[in-house]
Design brief:
Helices cover about 0% and strands about 40% of the residues. The chain is mostly beta strands. The protein has a four-stranded antiparallel sheet, with no helix packed on it.
Length: about 70
């Protein structure tokens, strides 16, 4: 699975899913990492949440459906 963007990942870099959890209400949380190759080429932890139908849940994160953690 790639974290979304339209350019192959959240930031157009390479993404990796590490684990998946189903919330009690049926929403799907994907834990992994993303690499923004146009800036730092550093892999950063990321979370993505999908609705019960598998669509990106835009009520999660900053209305994007995903969150990238800055370390």
């Amino acid at each position: 699975y790639s974290f979304p963007s339209g350019q192959g990942g959240i930031f157009g870099g390479s993404d990796r899913a590490e684990d998946v959890m189903i919330e009690p209400g049926g929403k799907i949380v994907v834990v992994g990492s993303t690499r923004r190759t146009d800036v730092t080429d550093v892999q950063k932890p990321a979370l993505l949440r999908l609705t019960t139908s598998g669509a990106i849940d835009t009520s999660f994160g900053e209305s994007s459906g995903f969150t990238v953690f800055q370390l």
